[in-house]
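Researcher: Structure for this, please.
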Amino acid sequence: MTAQTQDTDRLLTPSEVAQMFRVDPKTVARWAKAGKITAIRTLGGHRRFPASQFRDLLTGSGN
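Model: Predicted structure, token format:
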């Protein structure tokens, strides 16, 4: 497995996503609730976000 593949499979916490976009973690939760970003729920009910979707957004390669 390459480093890029490992990064793609990585799940980010709301705080990590918030740091990337310089917003509050609650804003990230609202984006997920509104369906603007994809969230995965853990068994404990916490949100996790696939790193790949944000790399695409930040580099502009999405769409």
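Researcher: Any notable elements?
Model: The two ends are 26 Å apart (CA to CA). The chain has a mean pLDDT of 86.
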